């Protein structure tokens, strides 16, 4: 399985690094994926999909298999809402929602759900 991620504050990048997986970094959304992949993203604003992820998904959305999302529970109902929107728009499974960069237990759980 391939992986792609977007990280603004470093939380998602820390998750990807902790998992020890090779993943395509989404910087501006112009990146391309030619195989099925799992997306790691953060939630922007108050429950929004980050703009660079929206652009990336417009070109690569047919190949997405699942999403792992980082968020902050301090935002209440908007916590990891980007995953909900991506799942609804692209028909993929929400694999895991994690607070910021996660705990060691979160990392182990994510490894299990992505098969890493």
UniProtKB/TrEMBL annotation:
InterPro entries: Flavoprotein-like_sf (IPR029039), RNR_NrdI (IPR004465). One of its GO terms (molecular function) is FMN binding. This is NrdI protein. It comes from Holdemanella biformis DSM 3989. The gene is nrdI.
